[in-house]
Structure formats: structure tokens, C-alpha cells
Design a protein that fits this description.
Elements (H helix, E strand, L loop, with lengths): L2 E5 L2 E4 L4 E8 L8 E6 L6 E6 L5 E3 L7 E6 L4 E6 L8 E9 L2 E4 L3 E6 L1
Parallel strand pairs: 2-11
Antiparallel strand pairs: 1-3, 3-8, 4-5, 4-9, 5-6, 7-8, 9-10, 9-11
């Protein structure tokens, strides 16, 4: 059973930075693509960024140039470095992967950006 655990969220002022971490337990997920999603109150969950096993990355237009997704396979961890944060980045951020045909989600970490 694979478990994902996000950390690193918090309260930050606009223009600030945070680094989120997604640690995997129970299985090694270096052979899987990993995504970061976010969900703001009243909104649908949206894809923020994803990274393939080979390190190819993809970003939502709203975060391009500000967010960077990376992975450390030795630590079984994926990161989301967020810079130049805006109030509209406020959301719960979730880590997701598809492993063995099953979808796995973490419980999320809250990011609040004050203006």
C-alpha cells in the first residue's frame, strides 16, 4: 500500500516562497509520474504541475515561471518550490500518483497567501 504525505504548507505574505514536499511510504514511486494539484474553497481541484519518471515537467499556465516541481528518487520525495506567491495561490495542495493502476492522494497541505 502506497501512502503519500505532503508537508511544507503555511501562511506566507504575497511575494513570498514556500517549498512543499510529498513523501511516499510503502512503495517506491520513482517509476511513476507524480502530480501536484490544488483546491481553493469553492473551486474544483486543478492540476498545478507534474513530473515524469524521467524528470520531464509540465505546469499550469497560472504558475509557469513561479513554481518548480522536482523529485529526489533516492528520498522517494517530490517537491514543489513556489515563489512569487499570490493570494490566488491560496489552496490546499495535494500530491497524486498512479501506481499499479490505482490512484493515490495525500491528505493535502494548506497554503495561505496574504495580501
Amino acid at each position: 500500500q502506497l501512502q503519500l504525505e505532503e508537508s511544507g504548507g503555511g501562511l506566507v505574505q504575497a511575494g513570498g516562497s514556500l517549498r512543499l514536499s510529498c513523501a511516499a511510504f510503502g512503495r517506491i514511486f520513482r517509476f511513476n509520474a507524480v502530480d501536484w494539484y490544488r483546491q481553493a474553497p469553492g473551486n474544483q481541484r486543478e492540476l498545478v504541475a507534474d513530473i515524469t519518471t524521467g524528470g520531464i515537467t509540465n505546469y499550469a499556465d497560472s504558475v509557469k515561471g513561479r513554481f518548480t516541481i522536482s523529485r529526489d528518487n533516492a528520498k522517494n520525495t517530490v517537491y514543489l518550490q513556489m515563489t512569487s506567491l499570490k493570494p490566488e495561490d491560496t489552496a490546499v495542495y495535494y500530491c497524486h500518483t498512479l501506481n499499479g493502476g490505482m490512484h493515490y492522494w495525500g491528505k493535502g497541505t494548506l497554503v495561505t497567501v496574504s495580501s
